[in-house]
Design goal:
27 strands; single chain; elongated; L,D-transpeptidase catalytic domain-like; four-stranded mixed beta sheet; Immunoglobulin-like; 3 domains; 11% helix; mainly beta; 428 residues
Length: 428
């Protein structure tokens, strides 16, 4: 309705609404302060300014306004000007825009919210300095022409180890840092007990979230998207996303000392078992660093050809392996290796996996769960990759992790971050 409290109807009302909205945005974006009757002593009561301004955009067509279309307000009178615009939706959110220095034009610099009701106050000034005012209201429509950014959270509902990162898979690539910041702000993670954590951009369509330290034992973690309807950029808005709740179990960590040929399992900080093991021999060294349990497979057929060892060579093999706990997608497991029992605890003779007796492998298989931690130290192998071969997230210290966030760092995608396309059998 206008300032005189008489409601506008039809096209003229819609046009006035658009104009007012545009004017408001301009004032807010440019920091313009509207004139009042105090600054124009010629008139104590502002006049109706509806005829001094015109609008462009979908509001001119009547009905709900397309939230993805730009809004523009123009001063019709060459001797008059727009001085101030204030537009607020029912949720208290202000619009932003830009007002020309001479007050001749205002245009929106960000889209309107979807399915929102706006109230707009537009102030003008004529050639004699008299203030004019118009108050209008309009409603925006639902989904416009922008694409929707879907978000799928992982790993899925359930109970996991304290090393399990959260994953957010996006339906569209997001490359611009400012747009990535919008996405991050909309992805909310809550943990009970509370933790300090951050998102890391693995690539243009994937983010990982982890705490500064491991998750607390027996925590409840909830992640949800608040992006629905939010303008991200490049004609992209947030879409619907299903929230995810998961829990953590006991804090179970397994420390493998490749030099001592021993794996030690801890539960909630207390040592519960030591196991003699063998790890990768020269040329096939086991990766150092922290790995996260990806899956447990009671039976796996392991063939040397899947890891680049030619069939018929001195190093070739084709074995049925039991109680296999996977820690990389490229084929590194903790598993039963009855053929190397004589070397377990004394020498490293495997092709990269951590081997142990069948009885110990079954115990380990039954003790750990997805998300538990397996760390290898004192191997001559490379360090576990942060991304692309499982969850090596914990091999980045906290400062380096924060650099992968668009809010606390550069938010840049590392060139080596790439997930393996399929599961592969392992080297034994």
């Amino acid at each position: 309705m206008r300032d005189t409290e008489s409601p506008r109807t039809g096209l003229r009302g819609a046009r006035a609404c658009l104009a007012g909205c545009a004017l408001l945005v301009a004032a807010l974006g440019a920091g313009v302060t509207g004139c009042s009757s105090d600054s124009s002593p010629l008139s104590a009561e502002p006049y109706d300014a509806a005829d001094q301004i015109s609008f462009s955009g979908s509001l001119d067509e009547g009905g709900p306004v397309d939230p993805d279309q730009p809004l523009e307000i123009t001063a019709e009178d060459s001797d008059g000007r727009i001085t101030d615009v204030v537009a607020v939706d029912a949720a208290g959110r202000h619009l932003a825009g830009e007002l020309a220095a001479d007050g001749s034009r205002w245009h929106s610099t960000s889209p309107l919210a979807e399915d929102a009701q706006y109230t707009v106050r537009v102030s003008t000034e004529d050639e004699d300095g008299r203030p004019g005012r118009e108050v209008v209201a309009f409603t925006t429509g639902g989904p416009g022409t922008a694409k929707r950014l879907g978000v799928t959270f992982g790993p899925g509902a359930g109970t996991y180890g304290v090393g399990q990162p959260l994953v957010a898979e996006l339906s569209e690539p997001v490359r611009d840092r400012a747009q990535r910041a919008v996405v991050e702000r909309g992805l909310q993670v809550d943990s009970t007990p509370a933790v300090t954590g951050a998102w890391y951009w693995v690539d243009d369509k994937k983010l990982h979230f982890r705490p500064e330290e491991y998750w607390p034992a027996h925590a409840t973690v909830r992640v949800r998207s608040n992006l629905e309807g939010v303008w991200i950029g490049d004609r992209l808005r947030g879409g619907r996303a299903e929230p995810l709740t998961l829990r953590t179990g006991d804090r179970v960590t397994a420390l493998t000392d490749a030099a001592a040929h021993r794996l030690t399992v801890y539960k909630n900080g207390e040592e519960i078992k030591q196991i003699p093991v063998t790890t990768g021999k020269p040329g096939f060294e086991t990766r150092n660093g922290v790995k996260v349990v990806l899956a447990k497979e009671r039976f796996v057929r392991m063939r040397s050809t899947t890891v680049g060892i030619a069939e018929g060579s001195a190093e070739s093999y084709d074995l049925d392996v039991h109680f296999a706990t996977r820690v990389t997608w490229s084929g590194e497991y903790v598993h039963a290796a009855p053929w190397s029992v004589g070397s377990q605890g004394y020498a490293n003779v495997s092709h990269g996996c951590v081997g142990m007796s069948t009885a110990d492998a079954e115990w380990f298989f039954d003790t750990v769960r997805q998300g538990d931690l397996v760390e290898v130290v004192n191997s001559d192998g490379d360090t576990m990759e942060p991304f692309g071969n499982g969850f090596g997230d914990w091999n980045l210290d906290w400062d380096r992790w924060r650099e992968g966030s668009a809010l606390t760092g550069g938010g840049k995608t590392p060139g080596t971050a790439r997930e393996a396309a399929r599961l592969r059998p392992a080297a034994v």
